Please model this.
Amino acid sequence: MRADKQTILIFIIILFHAVGLAGFAVETLQPFFLQFVPFHLLLMLAMVFLSHQDIDPKFVLFIVVISLLAFTIEWLGVNKHLFFGHYAYGQTLGYKWQNVPVIIAVNWLMLTYATGTVMQNLNVRSASARIIIGAFVMMTLDVFIEPNATRYDYWHWVPPGEYLTAPLGNYLAWFGVGAVMLGVFEAFGFKKQNAVGGALLLAQFLFFLLLYWI
Model:
């Protein structure tokens, strides 16, 4: 991908995270900005996908597989209390089907792709090592997400957990689910990608870290 296109995509990622953070910081603006969270996730997914080299049927299949896998896991999590613990989604993530926001599949897809491309760029030769390290990165991101998720009505734990509002099992599940999804990413054997995925992942970390301290 040309450097100027990559720069534009990274700029958009940084800009929208910065604007979102500023909007969340002003209490009177929070209701306005919260209603755009699902659209923000879609935009961020578009940014990383626009950066992908060789968009072909294999890449489309990857999107379908991860999306279906993510939604199935979340459906089992919400309705059967498997994997993560006992939790329920609020209104911030938008339209729900059988108690699960449809956009949550987009979030898992976005994070899986971004983390997978970051692991590629670290030049870790072992696929197993990339999966394990990447799953740990995704789990660590959730540590930053959890206290903000309950605060802004993304989701809620029943009862509230003892580890930054979530139960310990949730973080272990994030590691396990992340490893499975990164295993799928590795199985597709994509060519090494550019830095846009890394920029998104870093923006997510900074956004939720700073949001916690606002």
Summary: Strands lie at 87-89, 96-97, 100-101, 155-157. The first helix runs from residue 3 to 25. The chain has a mean pLDDT of 94. The longest strand covers residues 87-89.
